[in-house]
Amino acid sequence: MNIQFINPPFLGRFSRSQRSPGIIKSGTMYYPYWLAHAAALAERQGHNVHLVDCPASGKSESDLHKNVLDFQPELMVLESVTASWQSDLEVAGHLKKVAPHAAICLTGTHVTALWKETLEKQPAVDFIAIGEYDHIVCELAGLLDEGRTDYTSAQSLAFRQNGHPARTDNRPPLQNLDELPWIAPIYKRFLDPKDYYFNLSHYPMVMLIGGRGCNATCFYCVYPQVVHGHAYRHRSPEHIVGEMLWVQENMPEVREITFEDDNFGADRQFARRFAELVKEKGVRLPFFANLRTTVDLETLKALRDAGLRNCAVGFESGDDMILRNMRKGQNTSIQAKFVKNAHDVGLLVNGCFMVGFPGETRETMQKRWTWLLRSNPTARNFTPLCLTRAPALMLIIKRWATWQPITFGSGSRMTAAIDVSSTCRT
Hints:
Blueprint (H helix, E strand, L loop, with lengths): L1 E6 L25 H12 L3 E6 H4 L3 H11 L3 E5 L5 H14 L4 E5 L1 H5 L1 H7 L5 E3 L4 H12 L11 E5 L2 E4 L16 H7 L14 E4 L2 E2 L9 H7 L4 E2 L2 H14 L5 E4 L8 H14 L5 E5 L5 H10 L1 E9 L3 H6 L6 H13 L3 E8 L6 H14 L3 E6 L6 H10 L1 E6 L6 E6 L7
Parallel strand pairs: 1-2, 1-3, 3-4, 4-5, 8-11, 11-12, 12-13, 13-14, 14-15
Antiparallel strand pairs: 5-6, 6-7, 9-10, 16-17
Helix pairs in contact: 1-7, 1-8, 10-11, 11-12
């Protein structure tokens, strides 16, 4: 079966795959790594695949239509997130007119949470893949290949049954991630590394996923709550290092590897064995990783010795009450100790901070700034609390905040914002 994996156009260089999707001032553009994972598995199972990333490559909707006409897909798989959902549904509707014979399946955090509303709103969407969709897409393709019209045997799939939205039971999370093929060869065939940018890594870079899930319970984070769960499942160090070596040998333009796991150091034994193997196998490329403040000194040292050059850490606030409110699982003392340890082993530390949590005041915001100046991470960035379909965040919004639609561009290009002023005291 011809399966086309599509990161649809939205507003310019819209970075859809990241935890807080948006158009980033630094020019950051994430790889479509979830689509790449599904494409790699579908190809291994005998399907003919094509991956097109419109925001990164600058392709317009008309350019996408030309790609679709050239490839003649029988199944189109589109990724969608909260900010672009309305537009993604429009794109799906237009694609159905371009390729009426092809089935359309939407994936991503927003449609996973709102699968029923998505099917009700856009008749052109035939299926929703719920959660991690690597195997779901392959199972769906198999059913379509057989000409089946009963999809109830496929887990974590939403569709219309007798004209009404329906879905099947959840598929258990994949435990052995080594079953999945590497995504770097998919990148090399379909994408240009120079179209992607991450301001904490050397340019050009590639983004890889070492594991899925996060053991933290921060109420605002969408991936563990909606898609991957709170157990960190990682590939074996051998599998990851093998892919790093493949990149090193086959993509000579790449200067750094960026690991986009929620918390690369969550499993200390894994992280230390990975570090040993990187040195043992001769990986020369430096790498970047997201870490939590709970990673200990010895693990930091092992990763630094293996080539970890820079890391991003979610400090979020300098006030212990705000950290408790967001269920961060850390306090300002733990945060300060992490920064000191990281600096001691020679790591660059990018501190991530968010503003607008329940209980926020001018005083708590000032504490954030005071803590930052005292602890002195290498770099820092600030963002407002970003709207996602994380269930715990939605409960906070319903209780304390106001959902406000905002229009960008034409009247149909709508996204949403939240007003948290009632939760903050000025």
